C-alpha cells in the first residue's frame, strides 16, 4: 500500500486518469474536457513515470510514531530527529539513503552501495538514540569498523556510534548519546533556594 501512496505513484495514477478521461471526451466530441484531459494528463503521466523510475522508498520505521515522542522532541535530539525524518521519506534521484553522508565517510561503493533497511528509535537511559540497519553490499564491515569513532561525531554533537554485525553482509549502526556528555535529564539543574 505504501508504494501506491508515493508521490510518483499518485502523479502517475492522476495523469493516467486525466489522459483516459480526455481521450474518452475526445472520442465523444466533448472538446472542453478532452483539451484539459490531454494537456494536463499526459505531462502528469510522464512526470509520474519519471519519478517512479528514480524512486527510493523510505526505510522501514520499526518504532511506532507515538513511542518516545517526548525524547524525540527534546532540543538535544534534533540531529537524530532530522536524520530519522530524512530516511523515512521518499527520495528521488539517489541510489541509497544517506548517499552523500556515506560518500563523505568513505563508506560508499558506486556499484553496490550500502542499503538502509530499517531504523528504530531507542531510549538510552533517558536520552534519544537511533539504530540503523544496513545491508553492506560492496562496503565490507571492516571499513565500517574503521570509521566507528568518526560516525558518531559525523551525525551530531555528543553522539557515539556502536556497530554490531547482524549477519554476514548486514550490520546495525547505533547512534547513541555519549556517556561523557551530560544531557538535561542526566544532571538536572539544582532548584533555586
Question: Can you give a write-up of this model?
Answer:
With 193 residues, this protein is α+β, with helices and mostly antiparallel strands. Helices cover 40% and strands 22% of the residues. It has helices spanning 7-27, 31-53, 69-72, 78-87, 99-104, 141-146, 148-155; strands spanning 55-56, 60-61, 91-92, 115-124, 127-135, 159-167, 170-177. The protein has a 5-stranded mixed sheet. Strands 1-3 form a two-stranded antiparallel ribbon. Helix 1 (7-27) packs antiparallel against helix 2. The longest helix has 23 residues, at 31-53.
Secondary structure elements and their pairing?
Blueprint: H1 7-27, H2 31-53, E1 55-56, E2 60-61, H3 69-72, H4 78-87, E3 91-92, H5 99-104, E4 115-124, E5 127-135, H6 141-146, H7 148-155, E6 159-167, E7 170-177
Parallel strand pairs: 2-4
Antiparallel strand pairs: 1-3, 4-5, 5-7, 6-7
Helix pairs in contact: 1-2
Short description:
By secondary structure, this protein is α+β, with helices and mostly antiparallel strands. Helices cover 40% and strands 22% of the residues. It has helices at 7-27, 31-53, 69-72, 78-87, 99-104, 141-146, 148-155, and strands at 55-56, 60-61, 91-92, 115-124, 127-135, 159-167, 170-177.
Amino acid at each position: 500500500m505504501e508504494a501506491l501512496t508515493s508521490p510518483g505513484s499518485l502523479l502517475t495514477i492522476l495523469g493516467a486518469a486525466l489522459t483516459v478521461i480526455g481521450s474518452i471526451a475526445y472520442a465523444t466530441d466533448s472538446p472542453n474536457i478532452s483539451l484539459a484531459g490531454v494537456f494536463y494528463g499526459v505531462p502528469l503521466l510522464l512526470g509520474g513515470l519519471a519519478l517512479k523510475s528514480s524512486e527510493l522508498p523510505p526505510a522501514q520505521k520499526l518504532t511506532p510514531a507515538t513511542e518516545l515522542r517526548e525524547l524525540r522532541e527534546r532540543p538535544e535530539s534534533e540531529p537524530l530527529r532530522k536524520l530519522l525524518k530524512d530516511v523515512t521519506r521518499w527520495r528521488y534521484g539517489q541510489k541509497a539513503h544517506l548517499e552523500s553522508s556515506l560518500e563523505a565517510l568513505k563508506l560508499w561503493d558506486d556499484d553496490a552501495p550500502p542499503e538502509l533497511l530499517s531504523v528504530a528509535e531507542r531510549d538510552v537511559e533517558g536520552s534519544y538514540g537511533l539504530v540503523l540497519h544496513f545491508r553492506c553490499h560492496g562496503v565490507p564491515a571492516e571499513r565500517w569498523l574503521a570509521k566507528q569513532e568518526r560516525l558518531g561525531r559525523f551525525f551530531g554533537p555528543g553522539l557515539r556510534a556502536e556497530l554490531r554485525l547482524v549477519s554476514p553482509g548486514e550490520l546495525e549502526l547505533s547512534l547513541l548519546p555519549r556517556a561523557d556528555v551530560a544531557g538535561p535529564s542526566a544532571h538536572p539543574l539544582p532548584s533555586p533556594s
